[in-house]
């Protein structure tokens, strides 16, 4: 009769033998898998396995950094698992306020790599926060995304203008928008209006509430140069409903603050007139009297 101690030793020995045999049988298969899936991989088997796994992801995307300011170049690169000649990767950037910043079609190289650069100095990158860079290759299901963070002040933005304020010719104007992103704003002193440039990817609404020191007596709105009636005006607050594809909204009042250029021209004109008058008086003073 075999004692319990002998049985325990035999069981332990058998377990060790099976474990060794299992390791021997698994290692060649693992190595072969790495060599087939990732022939150019370097480093340990774990790194090779991770890269091999990456090869099976339909599309991947990454950036050179995770955080940028408003004067940066974002280097975007990615890879597709199954290259199809002639098919481009569609890249879409979404702002922290869920607006479309840019859409690009990127060519995929023969080595399955695609790359592009994004410039954060544009007006559509004016919010601080998290931006989503989404890529799609062919079918809607073949997609992936990466997140980047933008911080700091926008170049040329007046001190005090927040993320929910338009910068129009040096003035901050509170606003809210849906269905579009704002690409710029300016004050038109000739027509006594505020002109807002937008990129409307769907039907939406724009609300602005400028100070009466900037514009007052608002009574008329143009959308892409056409008179627009789908508007609500309550004092100096204006809400404009617009359709997809809209590019420009102009809000017209009875008064708009002059731009610095207009004031400078007026001052210059006064100075020139003063010089002419003084010169004329001086000449008259030196003419001999008979």
What does this entry show, briefly?
The chain has 290 residues and is α+β, with helices and mostly antiparallel strands.
Give the topology.
Layout: H1 4-37, H2 45-55, E1 59-63, E2 67-68, E3 73-80, E4 88-94, E5 100-107, E6 113-119, E7 129-137, E8 143-150, E9 165-168, E10 171-188, E11 193-208, E12 215-216, E13 220-223, E14 226-227, E15 231-234, E16 237-242, E17 248-252, E18 255-256, H3 260-286
Parallel strand pairs: 2-8
Antiparallel strand pairs: 1-3, 3-6, 4-5, 4-7, 7-8, 9-10, 10-11, 11-16, 11-17, 12-18, 13-14, 13-17, 15-16
Keywords:
single chain; 290 residues; eight-stranded antiparallel sheet; 3 helices; 25% helix
Provide a descriptive summary of the structure in words.
This protein is an alpha+beta fold. The protein folds into three domains: 4-54, no CATH class; 57-150, Sandwich (Immunoglobulin-like), CATH 2.60.40; 165-256. It has helices spanning 4-37, 45-55, 260-286; strands spanning 59-63, 67-68, 73-80, 88-94, 100-107, 113-119, 129-137, 143-150, 165-168, 171-188, 193-208, 215-216, 220-223, 226-227, 231-234, 237-242, 248-252, 255-256. The strands form four sheets. Strands 9, 10, 11, 13, 14, 15, 16 and 17 form an eight-stranded antiparallel beta sheet that branches. A hairpin with a 5-residue loop joins β4 and β5 (100-107). The chain is elongated and about 85 Å long. The model is unreliable at 4-42 and 259-265 (pLDDT under 50).
